[in-house]
């Protein structure tokens, strides 16, 4: 059987880009059990309120909801359990340096398949204030209006 080489997005945290300024993002592996992988492949993962935390030199993703697999019976785990992320020590220490600064946090942006393995796109983010969100919405609306006007002129 031929391996897939493309990336297939399985779950996305759309609210993250609205609520946070994304400073840097990186790819990380995730430690899962078999029924969780099957459930994630079926698209039953939710990243909405999840975040990553560094404990004892290891990174864990918290509040990521993976629905129990229907045919998993006794092998299913707790849907909200902490899951370990797989990164090199140098990457973890760099992320630790970011998170010790005030206002920075680690947010998962998406779950995707890469060469048959589940990966997480992890971002270093800084929270937005309400006025920042309003400014971003105004910029987006202005860009949409400009694009619409350009399209009409080219006709």
Q: Which helices and strands occur, and which strands form pairs?
A:
Layout lengths: L7 E5 L1 H6 E11 L3 H8 L3 E2 L4 E5 L2 E5 L2 E2 L16 E4 L2 H12 L3 E11 L2 E11 L2 H25 L1
Antiparallel strand pairs: 1-8, 2-7, 2-9, 3-6, 4-5, 5-7, 8-9
Organism: Clostridium tanneri
Subcellular location: Cytoplasm
InterPro entries: SmpB, SsrA-bd_prot, SsrA-bd_prot_CS
Write structural notes for this entry.
With 155 residues, this protein is of the alpha+beta class. Helix content is 33%, strand content 36%. It is built from 4 helices and 9 strands, in the order βαβαβββββαββα. It has a 7-stranded antiparallel β-sheet with strand order 1-8-9-2-7-5-4. A hairpin with a 2-residue loop joins strand 4 (51-55) and strand 5. The relative contact order is 0.24. The model has no long low-confidence stretch (mean pLDDT 85).
């Amino acid at each position: 059987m031929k391996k897939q080489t493309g990336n297939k997005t399985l779950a996305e945290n759309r609210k993250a880009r609205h609520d946070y300024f994304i400073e840097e993002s990186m790819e990380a592996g995730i430690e899962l059990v078999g029924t969780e992988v099957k459930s994630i492949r079926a698209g039953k993962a939710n990243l909405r309120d999840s975040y990553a935390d560094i404990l004892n030199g290891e990174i864990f993703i918290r509040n990521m909801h993976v629905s129990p697999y229907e045919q998993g019976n006794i092998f299913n785990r707790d849907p909200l359990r902490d899951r370990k992320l797989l990164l090199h020590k140098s990457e973890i220490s760099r992320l630790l340096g970011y998170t010790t600064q005030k206002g920075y946090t680690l947010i998962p942006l998406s779950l995707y398949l890469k060469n048959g393995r589940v990966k997480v796109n992890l971002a270093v983010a800084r929270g937005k204030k309400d006025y920042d969100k309003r400014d971003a919405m105004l910029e987006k609306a202005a860009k949409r209006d400009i694009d619409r006007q350009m399209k009409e002129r080219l006709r």
